[in-house]
Design goal:
By secondary structure, the protein is α/β, with parallel strands linked by helices. It has helices at residues 8-19, 36-43, 77-84, 93-100, 147-152; strands spanning 26-28, 50-58, 64-70, 88-90, 117-121, 130-133, 139-143, 155-157.
Length: 161
């Protein structure tokens, strides 16, 4: 699939990457990249280099909170609550779609419907390249992990359990 043939959601991610002056290119694959394991298999990389985009919801504020985590790590809700300054809960599919504009399994680190508070798993920084979702459960893009902060507006933190 060429860049001109990207689905509308993947195109929105590519446009956002371009607007930031990033060289990353969105690709849509024939197989699913919905989970970190599926993405690693489809791309041919390690699960640890897959960026899981997990949306949480602030229990008091109702605000969407995004964690960009290494594919092998489980996010500590306790640590995230400390970073967010309030208890957190995992967001349901409707909330994820409403706040990001994307479906679970395709949520990118940028191009969301509304600004999200974001944190980046410090473990991702050890890799020369990582792969993130790009708008659909089959679209991804390669990036340097340090670019995740720029594209998401997030801060690097210890988020794993």
């Amino acid at each position: 699939m060429t860049e001109n043939e990207l689905s509308s959601s993947a195109r929105a991610v590519q446009d956002a990457l371009d607007a930031l002056g990033l060289e990353s290119r969105v690709i849509e694959l024939p197989s699913s990249t919905r989970t970190a394991v599926e993405a690693a298999q489809a791309i041919g990389t390690s699960v640890a280099q897959i960026v899981k985009s997990i949306v949480f919801k602030g229990s008091r504020s109702g605000q969407a909170l995004l964690v960009l985590a290494s594919g092998v790590n489980r996010v500590s809700e306790e640590r995230l609550a400390g970073l967010a300054g309030e208890p957190v809960e995992k967001a349901d599919a409707d909330f994820v779609r409403a706040t990001t504009g994307f479906v679970i399994g395709g949520v990118p680190p940028l191009a969301h419907r509304q600004p999200l508070r974001a944190w980046i798993d410090e473990d991702l920084l050890q890799y020369g390249e990582v792969w993130a979702a790009a708008g659909t459960p089959r679209a991804v893009f390669r990036s340097h992990p340090r670019e995740l902060a720029r594209m998401s507006g997030g801060q690097v933190a210890a988020v794993k359990s």
